[in-house]
Amino acid sequence: MERKVKIPMPPDGRTVDGFEVPVLESTERWTEVKLEDGSVLRIKPSILSAVRVTGQYDQEGNPMYALKANNAMVVAEAPEHLKRQAGEIKKAN
After folding, report:
1. 18: buried, middle or exposed (CB in 10 Å: 19+, 13-18, 0-12)?
2. pLDDT for 25-59, tens place per residue?
3. Does residue 17 lie within any of the structural domains?
4. Which of 8, 29, 34, 64 fits a 20 to 30 Å CA distance from 52?
Protein backbone atom coordinates (compact mmCIF):
# COMPACT_ATOMS: atom_id res chain seq x y z
CA MET A 1 0.00 0.00 0.00
CA GLU A 2 1.35 3.40 -0.97
CA ARG A 3 1.86 5.99 1.75
CA LYS A 4 1.96 9.75 1.06
CA VAL A 5 5.27 11.32 2.13
CA LYS A 6 7.21 14.56 1.70
CA ILE A 7 10.78 14.26 0.46
CA PRO A 8 13.63 16.75 -0.15
CA MET A 9 14.74 16.95 -3.79
CA PRO A 10 18.26 17.78 -4.93
CA PRO A 11 19.92 20.06 -5.70
CA ASP A 12 18.13 22.71 -3.62
CA GLY A 13 16.46 20.45 -1.04
CA ARG A 14 12.94 21.74 -1.75
CA THR A 15 10.25 19.48 -0.30
CA VAL A 16 7.86 17.73 -2.70
CA ASP A 17 4.97 15.30 -2.32
CA GLY A 18 5.41 11.67 -3.20
CA PHE A 19 4.11 8.19 -2.53
CA GLU A 20 6.28 5.56 -0.90
CA VAL A 21 6.02 2.41 -2.99
CA PRO A 22 6.94 -0.84 -1.22
CA VAL A 23 9.82 -2.80 -2.75
CA LEU A 24 8.60 -6.30 -3.60
CA GLU A 25 11.86 -7.67 -4.96
CA SER A 26 15.37 -6.40 -5.53
CA THR A 27 18.33 -7.98 -7.30
CA GLU A 28 21.39 -6.19 -6.03
CA ARG A 29 24.61 -7.15 -7.75
CA TRP A 30 28.16 -6.05 -7.13
CA THR A 31 29.75 -3.46 -9.41
CA GLU A 32 33.51 -3.88 -9.74
CA VAL A 33 35.62 -0.73 -10.13
CA LYS A 34 39.30 -0.93 -11.09
CA LEU A 35 41.29 2.12 -10.02
CA GLU A 36 44.39 3.56 -11.62
CA ASP A 37 46.41 2.76 -8.47
CA GLY A 38 45.74 -0.96 -8.98
CA SER A 39 43.03 -1.33 -6.36
CA VAL A 40 39.75 -3.07 -7.11
CA LEU A 41 36.60 -1.97 -5.26
CA ARG A 42 33.31 -3.82 -5.15
CA ILE A 43 30.20 -1.72 -4.57
CA LYS A 44 26.61 -2.84 -4.09
CA PRO A 45 23.54 -0.67 -3.45
CA SER A 46 20.87 -1.81 -1.04
CA ILE A 47 17.51 -0.17 -1.75
CA LEU A 48 15.63 0.72 1.44
CA SER A 49 12.59 2.38 -0.14
CA ALA A 50 11.29 4.00 -3.32
CA VAL A 51 9.18 7.15 -3.54
CA ARG A 52 7.24 8.09 -6.68
CA VAL A 53 7.40 11.88 -6.96
CA THR A 54 3.99 13.43 -7.62
CA GLY A 55 3.74 15.24 -10.96
CA GLN A 56 7.37 14.65 -12.02
CA TYR A 57 8.26 12.70 -15.18
CA ASP A 58 11.35 11.90 -17.25
CA GLN A 59 11.74 12.83 -20.93
CA GLU A 60 9.90 9.66 -21.99
CA GLY A 61 6.89 10.32 -19.74
CA ASN A 62 7.82 7.78 -17.06
CA PRO A 63 7.17 8.68 -13.42
CA MET A 64 10.14 9.97 -11.43
CA TYR A 65 11.29 8.00 -8.40
CA ALA A 66 13.56 8.93 -5.52
CA LEU A 67 15.40 6.10 -3.79
CA LYS A 68 16.64 5.71 -0.26
CA ALA A 69 19.65 3.42 -0.41
CA ASN A 70 22.80 2.34 1.39
CA ASN A 71 25.98 1.35 -0.39
CA ALA A 72 28.19 -1.51 0.68
CA MET A 73 31.83 -1.30 -0.43
CA VAL A 74 34.73 -3.68 -0.03
CA VAL A 75 38.32 -3.48 -1.23
CA ALA A 76 38.62 -6.68 -3.24
CA GLU A 77 42.27 -6.15 -4.18
CA ALA A 78 44.96 -3.65 -3.30
CA PRO A 79 48.60 -3.48 -4.39
CA GLU A 80 51.05 -4.53 -1.68
CA HIS A 81 52.71 -1.08 -1.60
CA LEU A 82 49.37 0.50 -0.54
CA LYS A 83 48.67 -1.94 2.30
CA ARG A 84 49.69 -1.21 5.88
CA GLN A 85 52.62 -3.38 6.77
CA ALA A 86 52.52 -5.71 9.78
CA GLY A 87 53.76 -3.95 12.89
CA GLU A 88 53.22 -0.47 11.43
CA ILE A 89 51.75 1.89 14.02
CA LYS A 90 48.81 4.01 12.95
CA LYS A 91 49.76 7.69 13.36
CA ALA A 92 47.29 10.04 15.07
CA ASN A 93 46.54 13.27 13.22
Report:
1. buried
2. 888 899 999 999 999 999 999 998 899 999 999 99
3. yes
4. 29
Residue 34 located in a structural domain: yes
CA atoms 16, 62, 28, 35: torsion sign: negative
Number of structural domains the chain divides into: 1
Domain carrying residue 28: 3-82
Range of lowest pLDDT (6-15, 17-26, 37-46, 66-75): 6-15
Query: What pTM did the predictor assign?
Result: 0.64
- Are 52 and 18 in contact by the 8 Å Cβ rule? The answer is yes
Do residues 70 and 46 lie in contact, with contact meaning Cβ atoms separated by under 8 Å? yes
Decide if 9 is inside a domain: yes
* Position 29 in a domain: yes
Cα angle: 43, vertex 70, 79; to 5 degrees: 25
